[in-house]
Amino acid sequence: MDSERKYIIEHVTHPGHPLSYVEGSRVFQCDGCNKTGNGSKYQCATCDFDLHEHCATCPSSFSFVVHPPHHLNLISHAHLSLQDHICDVCGTEIDGILFYRCERCNFDVHPLCTQLPETTRHPLHPDHLLRLQPLSVGVCRVCQTSGCGHAWGYGCHVCDFNIHLQCLNSPIPRGSTFLDTLMSPMAVLIVMILALLIFLILMSTKNQHNWKGYSVHSVYVHR
Ligand SMILES: [Zn+2]
Ligand SMILES: [Zn+2]
Ligand SMILES: [Zn+2]
Ligand SMILES: [Zn+2]
Ligand SMILES: [Zn+2]
Ligand SMILES: [Zn+2]
């Protein structure tokens, strides 16, 4: 194996077997949060058990900016009933055995969703920083639908500009405004083809005139 192994840890999700650090691995399924990963991981090679580096090393309790009133506790229980546990940040189901929870508020979040930056930038809105915030109001500028009232996303308070978390890396919609339509690659291509056609038509009619003029002139000279 060309991956370099660095550290050995014990983890509560996989008692009895130490996990080894594997750097820059290929795509894997995290047995903690049940999401895919493709970076560094911790692995039990005997059982083909993998954890994201973050899932293996995240603290058992911490304060999360999205849920300021209480500390969140890391829950890692293979036999916990996970029915109706929805991540309060990304709005998708929590189907792994590792997640953060505030018992008092019934607030749950995927470990990886606690790693979202508080601010980000997006090419659709280059002038202002976008902040992590609830998307219960407003329409996502990428998918053009409103938030489900549950999940968080990134938004600009100044401009009422919102983007879902899952739409952050989606392709930017084209043709949403008149200017976008004008500037779309297809429109530019069509304009270039039309210009070329007009140029060719002009050139051919000009050549025809020259040829006629020349032939009439030569006939005249020969006589
Ligand atoms: Zn994970
Ligand atoms: Zn094992
Ligand atoms: Zn989540
Ligand atoms: Zn709480
Ligand atoms: Zn969206
Ligand atoms: Zn703005």
UniProtKB/TrEMBL annotation:
The keyword Cell wall biogenesis/degradation does not apply. Residues 13-56, 67-113, 123-167 form the DC1 domain. One of its GO terms (molecular function) is kinase activity. It comes from the Eukaryota. Coiled coil: none annotated. SUPFAM superfamilies: Cysteine-rich domain. Gene3D superfamilies: Zinc/RING finger domain, C3HC4 (zinc finger). Keywords: Kinase, Membrane, Repeat, Transferase, Transmembrane, Transmembrane helix. InterPro entries: C1-like_sf, DC1, Znf_RING/FYVE/PHD. Pfam families: C1_2. The keyword Membrane applies. The chain crosses the membrane at residues 182-202. This is Diacylglycerol kinase theta-like. It comes from Senna tora.
